[in-house]
């Protein structure tokens, strides 16, 4: 069966923060410079300590990235942290098409399930277009219970919860859909 894991990037796999023009990069963080038109933006980014081990163990689910940010920038972030080869497609916030998924899928994302606008957008992309933008709790709760796993937010440096600890929960979500 074709099973798909969608993974959010910011505050789930990494923490990336915008830097003021002269602001120094904090020790342990990495500088990213991103050019958009004739403007250069500076960021600092740090990888969640458990991110690599987690993605390595999730390869059977062909993880894709589902982010509200720009895909081009987030690919640069993934490359910086050596994670690009561990994920497939990178869907950015500007990707509005609905994916034609077949089979079970799970989203790992730190976004709150309620209020659920951000999550609804991502779920819609995963093929739940018929729920509308404001699904009732009756519709929404079972979807969350089947498809969403929410890690503790990664703010940088300390790992509040190794992502590998969430693997049993992810397996459970997939099992519910088989
Ligand atoms: Mg996030």
Describe the 3D structure.
- The protein is an alpha/beta fold.
- The protein has a single domain (4-14, 48-177), classed as HAD superfamily/HAD-like (Rossmann fold, 3-Layer(aba) Sandwich).
- Helix content is 27%, strand content 20%.
- A five-stranded parallel beta sheet has the order 6-5-1-7-8. A three-stranded antiparallel beta sheet has the order 2-4-3, covered by helices on one side.
- Helix 2 (71-80) links the parallel strand 5 (64-66) and strand 6.
- The protein is globular and about 50 Å long.
- The mean pLDDT is 90.
- The chain binds magnesium ion.
- Magnesium ion binds at residues 8, 10-12, 109-111.
Gross geometry: globular
Summed up, the domain count is 1
Residue runs with pLDDT of under 50 for 5 or more positions:
none
Q: Provide the list of bound ligands, each named once.
A: magnesium ion
Let me know the CATH homologous superfamily: HAD superfamily/HAD-like
Give, in spatial order, the strands making up the sheet with the most strands.
6-5-1-7-8
End-to-end CA span: 9 Å
CATH architecture: 3-Layer(aba) Sandwich
User: How does the helix and strand content classify structurally?
Assistant: alpha/beta
Oligomer: single chain
Provide the residue-averaged pLDDT: 90
Order of helices and strands: EEEEHEHEEHHEH
The number of strands is 8
Task: Compile the SSE list and pairings.
Elements: E1 4-7, E2 14-18, E3 30-36, E4 39-47, H1 51-57, E5 64-66, H2 71-80, E6 90-91, E7 105-108, H3 117-125, H4 137-147, E8 148-149, H5 167-177
Parallel strand pairs: 1-5, 1-7, 5-6, 7-8
Antiparallel strand pairs: 2-4, 3-4
Magnesium ion is lined by residues 8, 10-12, 109-111.
């Amino acid at each position: 069966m074709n099973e798909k894991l969608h993974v959010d990037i910011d505050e789930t796999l990494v923490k990336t923060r915008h830097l003021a023009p002269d602001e120094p990069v904090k020790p342990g963080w990495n500088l990213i410079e991103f050019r958009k038109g004739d403007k250069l933006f500076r960021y600092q980014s740090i990888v969640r300590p458990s991110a690599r081990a987690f993605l390595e163990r999730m390869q059977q689910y062909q993880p894709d990235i589902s982010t509200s940010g720009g895909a081009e920038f987030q690919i640069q972030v993934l490359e910086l942290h050596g994670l690009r080869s561990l994920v497939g497609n990178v869907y950015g916030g500007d990707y509005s098409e609905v994916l034609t998924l077949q089979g079970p899928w799970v989203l790992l994302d730190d976004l709150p399930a309620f209020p659920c606008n951000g999550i609804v957008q991502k779920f819609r992309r995963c093929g739940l277009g018929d729920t509308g933008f404001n699904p009732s709790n009756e519709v929404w709760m079972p979807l969350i219970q089947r498809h969403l796993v929410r890690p503790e937010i990664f703010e940088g440096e300390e790992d509040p919860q190794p992502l590998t600890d969430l693997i049993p929960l992810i397996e459970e979500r997939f099992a519910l859909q088989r």
